[in-house]
Design brief:
4 domains; 7-stranded parallel sheet; binds adenosine-5'-diphosphate; 7-stranded mixed sheet; alpha/beta; single chain; Rossmann fold; 24 helices; globular; about 700 residues; binds magnesium ion
């Protein structure tokens, strides 16, 4: 059998050296296998004939059969065109070309039967079809035409003649090659027959050249099944491996620090959800396995406290803990919070960031090595090789999406036995995505806010009503509250007609001349940023004008108004994150989304979702549906090659859950991977791991 993956695309009839380079560069198609798995993005039904009488200006592509009665040249200059008056006996339609006028007149014969294919539109009250495909009727076998595949190609490819039709021709050539259709099966018969899946070789032919919609759906289902099944299998298989290989530090007891904190220092009762999650963590770290847990909790749900309790467990069992934050401001805030809450306990908390001076750095590094530092709060700075621990037992990573796989792997290397890992995120990753991205992480959810929180009132405001908003802000400040104003950009961009931060700041300084304003953006030095942040946090300034640098974690309970300028520029998750900066104290808080009057359908939906829900999970699901998974915050930075060829996480959630169970069954049925029934599965898994297309395994 021809090894498709090993055979370069350039040997396929119709390709050659130049086109091979183009296919490789533009579409990442290098081998015959790559082409076979380059699926059409849509199909058009060419098995059906329409009549001219049926046509309207708002139809998709249609096919007609009839003759050309006459030609007419019309227009001048750029609008010069040739019109063919075409009829099938039920009426007339104009076929229009703007190019190749001479050639066309010679090509078509009046009175001959043609099949015309194109998209009808309305022009001057008449239906016409611009630049249709026209073929002699006898040459086409309508009944066998089925659905015509459409392939995405790039501008460069089109210029070289590689348009969708040419791609279809190449795929045809591929199928014509001896043996090409005999693609090795990727699923064993025991699975295909149980789940009623069609054989792979049929599937691949059908996905390119389906005869009917029904056939196409079945082929798509089979391919999605395949794709999702192997993702889940690699994740679950890796997880099983890890369970067997890695012993974890055992935090056997709940000791003095945990108990004293609980009874002496805790200023409030834990919420039910917090209690449940702490229990889940205790169960993990109390066993013999290394914990890998993802803690999801909406902004303000109290994740820090859960982290603190977990770190006390580490301390009580003789281990050090490290809390990692994505920015220095956040690390500093966390450190201050921990020190305040632990003030009466003999626990040493230190802060280490990129801007920690050498003089302070040395004793901290020494303290980490001799074990006298119990909790280290840090940023990426902790990843440096110089930072070594005596006995690191637990790493808590706050706001996970800023730390990729590689960073986490570096933390592993800081201890002989890998530390327990708790990843906390306030960007609620929808369940489907979490299962796929973090399939081997156990997931805990804090789905309850501390009592007494008032939902944040969210309003969508058009810019021409901004004056009312400003008087509202005045009243809030007079009542002693503080205000955030967020802009999406920091400098004028020609393309995006955005009101930038500098302009906005000057304008607000004029409007609110009785108050003090802070300004914060990403181009400022860390020291300046912190000074400004501190001025706002201490109440010295009343309004903080900023870019999205305040997005995560910042905690100023007295701030009650969040104004988001050019809200249309932000994704849903980001809007929700920003909104989470207010509503942290006892006062009613507000989020004001400011946009232009003219909005796209998409933006209008986003504003609607924001004003109608305060629930991060609802918002994340909606985000996934609106934007598609490739675009969700976090997935890009997470370092995972994320290219599903056919499955769609937003749409195929049910199938994903289904195949996860199938994958689990396979692992249970054949734990030693030596049952001949499943040979195909393990062989395929081995190939996938070797090609390392999916780097799921490295996530932990
Ligand atoms: P996040 O999950 O966004 O990190 P935090 O841990 O910063 O949330 O908590 C938000 C606020 O809620 C903090 O001021 C914290 O002290 C408070 N908090 C946390 N848990 C509780 C609780 N069980 N009851 C009352 N307030 C709480
Ligand atoms: Mg937090």
């Amino acid at each position: 059998m021809l090894d498709l993956a090993a055979r370069s695309i350039k040997y396929l009839p119709g390709v050659g050296e130049q086109r091979a380079t183009l296919l490789g560069r533009e579409l990442n198609i290098h081998s015959l296998y790559d082409l076979l798995y380059y699926f059409p993005y849509k199909y058009i039904d060419r098995s059906r004939l329409f009549t001219v009488a049926e046509l309207t200006g708002s139809m998709p592509h249609v096919q007609l059969c009839g003759e050309i009665r006459s030609f007419e040249e019309m227009g001048e200059g750029a609008s010069r065109r040739i019109v063919a008056h075409f009829t099938d006996g039920t009426g007339f339609v104009d076929l229009v070309w703007f190019r190749g006028l001479k050639y066309l007149k010679n090509r078509f014969k009046l009175g001959e039967k043609y099949i015309v294919f194109g998209k009808p539109s309305l022009f001057n009250g008449r239906v016409n079809i611009a630049h249709p495909d026209v073929d002699v009727a006898e040459a086409l076998q309508l009944s066998t035409m089925g659905l015509q595949p459409y392939y995405n190609t790039t501008e460069k490819m089109k210029r070289a003649g590689l348009n969708s039709q040419a791609m279809a021709k190449l795929v045809q050539n591929l199928f014509a090659l001896a043996g090409a259709v005999l693609t090795p099966e990727t699923l064993p018969q025991i699975i295909t027959s149980k789940h009623k899946l069609m054989p792979l070789s049929d599937t691949l032919r059908i996905i390119h050249f389906p005869k009917s919609m029904k056939e196409l759906r079945d082929a798509e289902y089979r391919l999605k099944f395949d794709e999702l099944f192997y993702i889940q299998l690699s994740i679950l298989h890796y997880a099983k491996d890890r369970m067997q290989k890695y012993v974890g530090h055992k935090f056997a007891k709940v000791g003095e620090m945990f108990n004293r904190f609980y009874s002496e220092c805790l200023p409030f009762e834990l919420t039910g959800a917090q209690k449940r999650v702490v229990k889940e963590i205790r169960r993990d770290v109390g066993g013999n396995h290394q914990m890998n847990r993802l803690l999801q909790g909406d902004v303000g749900s109290g994740k820090t406290l859960v982290a603190l309790l977990s770190m006390l467990l580490a301390k009580d069992n003789g281990y050090q803990a490290c809390l990692m934050a994505p920015t220095e401001i956040l690390a500093e805030q966390h450190c201050a919070t921990l020190r305040r809450m632990l003030a009466t306990l003999p626990i040493r908390v230190e802060l280490l960031t990129g801007s920690t001076r050498q003089k302070e750095r040395t004793p901290i590094l020494e303290g980490l090595l001799d074990g006298s530092v119990d909790i280290l709060v840090s940023t990426h700075a902790v990843l440096e090789d110089k930072v070594q621990f005596a006995n690191l037992g637990l790493v808590v990573i706050d706001e996970q999406h800023r730390f990729g796989v590689i960073q986490r792997a570096k933390m592993w290397a800081k201890s002989n036995i890998p530390p327990h890992i708790l990843v906390m995120t306030a960007t609620p990753i929808p369940r489907t995505l979490a299962m796929t991205l973090y399939g081997d992480l156990d997931v805990s959810v804090i789905d309850e806010l501390p009592p007494g929180r008032k939902p944040i009132a969210t309003r969508h405001i058009f810019r021409n009503r901004a004056d009312e908003m400003y008087s509202f802000i005045h009243r809030q400040i007079q009542e002693g509250r503080q205000v955030y104003v967020v802009y999406p950009l920091i400098s004028e961009s020609e393309k995006l007609d955005l009101k930038n931060l500098e302009d906005g700041y000057r304008q607000l300084c004029n409007i609110f001349c009785d108050y003090r304003l802070s300004k914060l953006h990403g181009k400022m030095k860390p020291k300046e940023k912190e000074d400004e942040m501190r001025r706002f946090a201490s109440g010295e300034t009343q309004i903080l004008v900023s870019t999205t640098v305040i997005e995560v974690g910042v905690d100023v309970p007295n701030a009650t108004v969040m104004v988001i300028e050019n809200a249309e520029r932000f994704g849903l998750s980001q809007l929700h994150q920003l909104r989470g900066r207010v509503g942290r104290g006892g006062n009613q808080s507000y989020c004001l989304l400011v946009t232009d009057y003219k909005l796209s359908e998409d933006t209008r939906k986003r504003m609607e979702i924001m004003t109608s829900s305060n629930d991060g999970f609802v918002i994340a699901e909606a985000d996934l549906k609106l934007r598609g998974p490739g675009d969700i915050e976090g997935t890009k930075q997470s370092g995972i090659a994320f290219d599903l060829k056919i499955a769609n996480l937003a749409r195929d959630e049910q199938l994903l859950q289904y195949v996860r169970d199938v994958a689990r069954e396979v692992i249970e049925a054949d734990p030693e991977c030596n049952n001949p029934y499943y040979t195909v599965v393990w062989e395929r898994l081995r190939i996938i791991k070797r090609n390392n297309n999916w780097n799921w395994g490295a996530i932990s």
